[in-house]
Design a protein that fits this description.
The protein is an alpha/beta fold and about 625 residues long. It has 20 helices and 15 strands.
Length: about 625
Amino acid sequence: MGTWHKDIFLIQPKRCVALPGFFRWPDAPLFVVQSGITKTALSMLADDLAAELSINASITSASADRASLQIQRTPNSGRDESYRMSILPTGITVHAPDSAGAYYAVQTLRELVRYYGRRLPCMRIDDYPDFERRGVSLDCARGKVPTVKTLKSLIERLGAWKINELQLYIKNSFTWSEHPDIGTGFSRFTPDEIRSLNGYAKKHHIRLVPYLASFSHMELILALPQYAHLAELPGAMGWSNGTCLNPKHPGSIKLIDELYAEFLPLFDADDFNVGCDETWELGRGKSKNTAKKIGTGTVYLDFLLKLHKLCDKYGKRLNAWGDIVLKYPELIPKLPNDMMMLNWDYGAKGSRMGRTEEFARADIPVMACPGTSGWTVHGSNLKNAMGNIRNFVAIGRKHGAKGVLNTDWGDYAHRNFTGPILHTLAYGAAHSWNGRGVKESGFTERFFAHFVGTPALAMDYKMLGEVAAILQSHKASPASLYHSLVEPIEGKHTRFADQLDPISTTWHYPEYFPATIDKTPRTALEEIIEKLNGVNFDIELPKQCSFEKLALDEMQTAVEMDILAARRSILAQDLRSGTSVKSATLKNWAEDMTRCTREFKRLWMARNKSLRLSDNLELMKLATKECVDLARR
């Protein structure tokens, strides 16, 4: 028998049987693919072989006797997106009922090549996904908008992890010709960029699913004078015109219709996420009298049904977050059964996860929506993230959920990076594809082995991911360092943010802008500094691995930002208690923060469009200047 190890896979196949012998790649292998199957994955495999083994493969749709790899489409041979791959001494064959299955077979083969190199042990793999929808949602609504190049690079990685859906959360970050003022001063996607992303995602068997705030989280639009009359409760959450549309004003649904008219035709996907979560002001403002008569839940449902009609108009299936419906569970039987509820919960033991069953019992299609726990932290709340994903996906599988949507957010100016969440996106992908088969022990090591060629960085990543757990073990918020990095040492905790544009992503929700700098015990801060001081993600990677190298740089900068935040918290606590602090200590912090700010700017610009970067840079510079000024006293 060929020697192979079951634990090598990042995305574990359903069934893998060892066969006798080995297959050895020739110097110039021929890939033969049946007409009708996309060649995208084969091109990726050919690039791998060339870069890693100096093997020059060619791809053809013509029949050939001496093919090293043959891919055949065999309709009705299995479930959608399934495949059978046989690796024999004489060659590799893939049978799949559709192009997606063939694509995923080649991604599995790429994992084998990455581990074994030129000589592969023979085996037969039979594989298929647990869920029909395996998605990722990225926040593009709070100032940070990735470039098309960044998103295409990410799409390639997501496809390799067998993700088949990507949502980009948009509030105002799109250019509407009929509403040109929306998003002014913010980076925005253009229609051509969305079309380009839609087409590129399709090549990797990923559906680009539109996601547009349509009821709540409308503060950046309502803050504009011409839309102020549509607000439910001006002043709510600290925003000039609140965050929620007045569902009773006819102009609200008219505005949404006009936004949909330009936005939705750009997407081929049948599904559309309308948001509709966290309608905090609903029933407290202009809809208050109606809510008293028929109930706030019914007011919510009435507007949701209007959105449902709009989705029908544009040929989309309505997807909506489930938190408000679960707040008013009497609404569940009244929901259309051709919609999709998105049940979200981001805690490892969150109570809303189990309520997935309520939708399933009512025959309302539902998705389980965990999170990366990668927001309001510089790195990742790793233990919570993995627990949340693992537990929620299992609950979704138990109750027949249609899919999994792994979410990432950017609260408070989106200072968190892409790099630290890639591990959790891969972990979510592994559970979405074959949850029972995930090898929990060593997953992080396997991720780094596949991602950058060495498992050694797993320990460094776990150290970075442990920061939140250390804070929580000392009864502090896991978000405390994120905020403390740029919180004033002296004066009101909003003193720096008050100097910025009031229509800014810095605030998130001004009513709840946190003060954390003196709330974390010194013992926790010192423990974090000690643990992180030895963390190092600086390794050499080939030039073609620029995406991965940038991710490691982001992880390293996340480490530096956590250390700086912990040091600043100690400085603040000493100064506020009257303890003397040396001028040199304050100057050293300012110098280190200046270097970190430069690196933060470089990393932002390497992945994202430029607008709203200034929000973060200004906060970081104000924090630096404060320490310089304190040192001069």
